[in-house]
Design brief:
The complex is a heterodimer of chains A (about 525) and B (about 120). With about 525 residues, chain A is mainly α. Chain A has helices at about 5-25, 30-35, 40-55, 55-70, 70-100, 105-110, 115-145, 150-200, 205-215, 230-245, 250, 260-295, 295-300, 310-355, 365-390, 395-405, 410-420, 425-445, 470-485, 495-505. Chain A has one domain (about 25-395): Sodium/glucose cotransporter (Up-down Bundle). In chain A, α7 (about 115-145) packs parallel to α18, α10 crosses α19 (about 470-485) and α12 (about 260-295) packs antiparallel against α14. The N and C termini of chain B lie far apart (about 50 Å). In chain B, a hairpin with a 2-residue loop joins β1 (about 25) and β2 (about 30). Chain B has helices at about 1-15, 30-65, 65-70, 80-120, and strands spanning about 25, 30. Chain B is elongated, with a radius of gyration of 21 Å. Chain B has about 120 residues and is mainly α. Chain B is built from four helices and two strands; from the N terminus they run αββααα. The longest helix of chain B has about 40 residues, at about 80-120. The chains are: A mainly alpha (about 525), B mainly alpha (about 120). The interface between A and B is large, with 55 and 52 residues.
């Protein structure tokens, strides 16, 4: 590793550790630890949401996908962006008003029971871990490719950092690491986009012509249909992308870190602007990669296309810019995994330890200690898993997370908030059927059952790569059937009305506890 | 669009408050005016959600069913309908977010006024 890389990395590690030190002194209550006591402003939280959301898969993966597949790569990002409208219109404000620290709080404010809390905690925990491990594995490969350091060392560095941020700094440190990441990521991609344009004398038609010359697809590069041949796959993916975000615990948890619903809305306004502009820039970078490097060079370096952005940086700015972009990718990864650690931690220490095991009676000090130990445990275990999974392809789990979230958490949240007749039984059956269906469809699908290098070397039983179109309706159907076949809950009209008015207006929250 | 109308109707039915008994939440009497405000908010929410899903899913659907048309050049030079529609999704998202923000602010202000009148 040469000195430029080393300096960039040390700089990022030191900056984030200073943030953590500063945050650690402030994370002395559970409220601070879990949700930064709602102290973030809307704009800060918007940046943190963007930092939580834009994973390395978005930054590196989408640039590569655009460089290889043209139009279809860009469509991916549209789904991610529009999903924020679903969050804002359907769940954001009610979630903020009903919950304290976790999604379990939100659902249990209508169906207060241990059973419900177990299931919500398990769902949040499973989704966060499923998302975190492939990110860690991918980061190990990425750092190995970029910096030429060993896979295990990369995983240990990233796993160690995320654990330190969360254990010592809780949500305050996590938020600020994510904010710093957004600033670095946005300025880096903006700079790179400007360099790409300047290489073509700011002449976009010229850039487009060069792209057509240098891609094997020719004119067809700008036409749809290279990534998604099968209409069902295509539609299914778009469905999971647009509904998934509204079920991701680590994103929804960020809605608790501001003080009121006005700030919640401001958060989502800022994050949609940041994420939208970011995806526009990835388009420029994707086109720039093809126009400046050519398809063959890209594929020769890495057939998955994930190295498109770093290669582009090296081409236009030499080693220095490559070091900068690698540092951005590194920050991107640690910010996302830190967000996942804290969401898994909350599910365990707040929902399971505090509410179920201690029946809501543990003291502030005990809760804080439990939270820190949980974060340490989760960090260690997921790092160990990531170390063991070096040889196994787990990257598909990233896109699976959206399907699992859209099939389990999303239906339960929407129906709990809006459906009067909904019962606890329905919530449980919905959650379970959504989780089981999506996991089963993945196991029986071509990601795992594949004669050509799959975990199970056989033809897939359900030959669909993106099973969202089956799993999401199953989640809703499970919730519906569970409701109509369960005894009508004693919860009267008036109780639902009370709950609904609270979720829509926050009247009760004005006077302390709901 | 009969399907859309049906969905809207259904969503309305799910949550219609049939009884109008008085509720006291957090020391505040929830009367007809509060309920009317919530109803108005919902009336705004449902068509907007329908528009969002329609606008979003029309993109993949039109690419699946009308690829030839989508690959034709649009009125913007050098840009096909497929690209134009994809690009339009961005300002659409920003517009819808802004719209929600404005409407929610109005709702919050009215709610605050109502509650202030209720307080002793």
């Amino acid at each position: 590793m040469n000195l430029t890389y080393f300096l960039f990395f040390i700089c990022i590690i030191v900056c984030t550790l200073i943030i953590t030190y500063w945050a650690a002194k402030r994370s002395n209550t559970t409220n601070r630890f879990y949700v930064a006591s709602g102290s973030l402003t809307g704009f800060q939280n918007g940046m943190a949401i963007a930092g939580d959301f834009i994973s390395a898969a978005s930054f590196l993966g989408i640039v590569g996908m655009i460089a290889i597949n043209g139009y279809d790569g860009f469509l991916y990002s549209i789904g991610f962006l529009v999903s924020y409208l679903v969050v804002l219109y359907l769940v954001a404000e009610p979630v903020h008003r009903l919950g304290k620290y976790s999604l379990g709080d939100v659902i249990c404010s209508r169906f207060p029971s241990n059973k419900m809390r177990w299931i919500m905690a398990f769902g949040a925990f499973a989704i966060s871990i499923l998302y975190m491990i492939p990110q860690l594995v991918a980061s190990g490969f990425l750092l190995r490719l970029l910096l030429n350091i060993d896979y295990s060392i990369s995983v240990i560095i990233i796993g160690g950092l995320m654990t330190i941020y969360v254990v010592f700094g809780g949500m305050v440190a996590t938020s600020w690491v994510q904010i710093v990441k957004t600033v670095v990521l946005m300025s880096g991609t903006f700079l790179l986009s400007l360099i790409v344009f300047s290489n073509f004398n700011w002449n976009v038609p010229f850039l487009v012509e060069r792209v057509k010359e240098l891609t094997p697809l020719g004119d067809a590069f700008f036409l749809p249909g290279h990534l998604f041949g099968n209409p069902i796959e295509f539609f299914s993916l778009q469905l999971a992308l647009v509904l998934g975000t509204a079920g991701l615990p680590h994103i929804l948890m960020r809605l608790f870190t501001v003080r009121n619903t006005l700030e919640v809305r401001r958060s989502l306004i800022s994050s949609t602007w940041i994420i939208g502009l970011f995806y526009l820039m990835t388009l420029v970078l994707g086109l720039g990669t093809v126009a400046l490097l050519g398809y063959q060079t890209l594929i020769a370096n890495d057939p998955t296309g994930n190295l498109a952005a770093p290669l582009l940086a090296k081409e236009v700015g030499g080693d220095f810019l490559l070091a900068f972009v690698s540092a951005i990718a590194f920050t991107t990864i640690v910010a996302v995994v830190a967000g996942l650690v804290i969401s898994a931690t909350t599910a365990f220490s707040h929902d399971i330890f505090h509410h179920i095991l201690k029946r809501g009676k543990s003291t502030e000090k005990e809760q804080l200690r439990a939270a820190r130990w949980t974060a340490l445990g989760i960090g260690l275990i997921s790092t160990l898993f990531a170390l063991r999974l070096e040889t196994i392809n787990v990257t598909f789990l990233v896109s699976m997370t959206f399907i699992v979230a859209a099939a389990s958490n999303f239906p339960i949240l929407v129906l709990t908030i809006y459906w009067k007749r909904f019962t606890q039984m329905g919530a449980i059956t919905g959650m379970v059927s959504g989780l089981v269906a999506s996991l089963l469809l993945v196991i029986l699908g071509p990601h795992i059952m594949n004669p050509d290098g799959g975990w199970i070397a056989r033809e897939a039983i359900i030959p669909i790569q993106n099973p969202g179109i089956i799993a999401i309706p199953i989640g809703f159907l499970g919730a519906y059937l569970g409701t109509i076949f369960s005894k009508k809950q004693r919860q009267s009209n008036e109780e639902f009305k009370r709950f609904f008015i609270q979720s829509q207006t926050g009247i009760a929250s004005r006077r302390g506890e709901p | 669009m009969p399907l859309q109308a049906l969905v809207i109707q259904l969503l309305f039915e799910l949550n219609k408050f049939t009884d109008s008994c008085e509720l006291v939440i957090g020391g505040i009497r929830v009367d007809e005016r509060v309920l009317e405000l919530i109803r108005r908010k919902k009336r705004l929410l449902i068509p907007n959600l329908a528009i969002i899903f329609l606008f979003y899913f029309m993109l993949p659907l039109s690419l699946i069913f009308y690829p030839d048309f989508m690959n034709k050049k649009s009125f913007v030079t050098g840009v096909t309908w497929a690209w134009l529609y994809a690009f339009l999704q961005l300002p659409f998202v920003w517009f819808m977010v802004w719209l929600y923000h404005v409407k929610a602010k109005q709702f919050d202000r009215r709610m605050e006024e109502t509650i202030q009148e209720e307080l002793p």
